[in-house]
Amino acid sequence: MAAFNLTPSDPSTFILTGIPGLESAHIWISIPFFTLYIIGLLGNFMVLFVVGKEQTLHKPMYLLLCMLALTEIGTSTSVVLKALCIFWFNLKGITLGGCLTQMFFFHAGTVMHSAILVTMAFDRYVAICNPLRYATILTNARIAQLGLVGLIRAVLFVLPLPLLLSRQPFCANRIIPHTFCDHMAVAKMSCGDITVNRMYGLVIPFVVNMLDLTLIGLSYGLIIRAVLRISSKKAHRKALNTCTAHICVMLMSYPSFFFSTLTHRFDQGIAPHVHIILANLYFLLPTMLNPIIYGVKSKELLEKVGKYTCRMCSPGDH
């Protein structure tokens, strides 16, 4: 494959180099990236298809799973497709508009993902602490309203990031050592003062995620208090078992988010290729694993997925 000229001919174009130091291994790195992405897409589209087809799954918990699936499809696609174009076709150029658009979608997806996890924690709280009123408190319409509030919040918090950057003057050297247009990676290309960008890009994600984690912690505190009041150990296990999938998803999402955010700003001692690979895995692993986790933990969903899988594998049977 011909070498790519790293001097952009168009002054409005940025160059995404991929993974610095590992350019010769891009093709090999693309194999696990592509595999994880395809498995994630298949799993999430299967969840959307099965929940959409099965009337019995039109419940708040499964609607939240669909929101999670849509968010993960959108977020991972906004990042991975460009990375694969770099790995496979050496297409490293991206316009300023394309860069800011990509940045908006994956950052908004991250904030939306966190909002859905908060709603899921509230769903578990109502199911365990107030089961008799669950159907009246958490209706499908209310879940849709909470999803809309989460989407509006994501747009309002994230939109200033590309807007602030669009007003910045950029230097002649527009080579971004990354596979996607991360906010701080693009901000560092500016010749102007990026203090506001740096502060907003650091404070807002932490404020949003710390608020969400506080609400989740409060929900689980109330859940644990309610569970401890139950005398039966079997009931303890049954109640807590309904939360394990949600806890697993949170353990994949929040620690990797904070690690990725902090290392990009205070990355002394961390090799760039390590940070970039981990940043991409932050989008890929939850997308692949979340449908598997919820599929395994939800017997009803697993049965329906099995039914449709068998139908697809045996098209001649009725």
Structure description:
The termini are far apart. This protein has a three-stranded mixed β-sheet. The protein has 318 residues and is mainly α.
Query: How far apart lie the N and C ends?
Result: 50 Å
Number of DSSP helical runs: 12
SSE order, as H and E?
Answer: EHHEHHHHEHHHHHH
* Arithmetic mean pLDDT: 87
Question: How many extended strands?
Answer: 3
User: Whole-number radius of gyration?
Assistant: 22 Å
Structural class: mainly alpha
Write a short abstract of this structure:
The chain is mainly α and 318 residues long.
Structural descriptors:
single chain; 318 residues; mainly alpha; three-stranded mixed sheet; 73% helix; disordered N terminus
Blueprint of the fold:
Blueprint: E1 13-16, H1 26-53, H2 60-89, E2 93-95, H3 96-129, H4 134-137, H5 140-158, H6 160-166, E3 175-176, H7 183-187, H8 195-228, H9 233-241, H10 244-265, H11 272-297, H12 299-313
Parallel strand pairs: 1-3
Antiparallel strand pairs: 1-2
